[in-house]
Amino acid sequence: AGGEAGGEDRGWLGKLRERAYERVAPTVQKVAEMESVQKGVQYAKTVGQKVQESERVQQGVAYVKQKTTEIQESERFQKGLEKTQHVAQVVTERAAQGLEAAKEKTKAFRAKAGEVWQRGGGTITKVRTSVGNLSWRGNARDTLDMAAREEQWRNIKVQGAEEISVPPRTAHTSAYHVSKGSTLRWTFRVKEHDIGFGVSMRVQEWGGSREDEVLAVERFDAGDTISGSWVADEDRTMVLAFDNKYSRLRSKTVAYIVG
Predict the structure, then answer these.
(1) Which residue, 49, 148, 204, 256, could crosslink 188 as a Cys pair with Cβ 3.0–4.6 Å?
(2) 239 and 224 in contact (C-beta within 8 Å)?
(3) Is the pLDDT of residue 227 over 80?
(4) Alpha carbon of residue 181 to chain centroid
């Protein structure tokens, strides 16, 4: 009887343990699962933190690369700017040298031309005269009253006698071959306002010709009759110019005679 009672007690205790285990086991499992979840969460946080740190590192690297590129580009820009400035300076210096050389060359040409004018005993005079508009009838000889200048023009072969119209912003030129020792003579006047007049000599050179100034262009007004002459120091081709380039709107009527 005592053995049976002991067996019943153990059976009852066993059942009690089983029931307790059945009740506790789910909780233990849940706790274990929660710990696992917590570990997973912690792991995820750790991984996320590492990812963030890695992204910050990558951003830092990208920033450094960007700044390095900017610095390199800036250095290249500075070098390019310095090179451009150097080239500009060289070009400016060469242009200045070229301009100075051109000035010296022009000065030399003018000096030479002045010598040509002086050697030829060049003269130019202006006489205040009154010529009415009715006197301008298309005949330069009549307009300039060449009958009164007969003595002055004795033994001079007339090569041109015209009344011409010089449009605004243009110049009328005519060339004459003058043999050594011969005299080139001219007389002219302008009908209204004024006209520029100058003399140059045509010089043949490789590829064409150039014109060197002998008498600089000067403006003469309508109240004057202008006469001039020059004796050739050697065979020359001389160019007489009536210059109206400075006038924007007005044409100028000029009567002239050349011999």
Answers:
(1) 256
(2) no
(3) yes
(4) 49
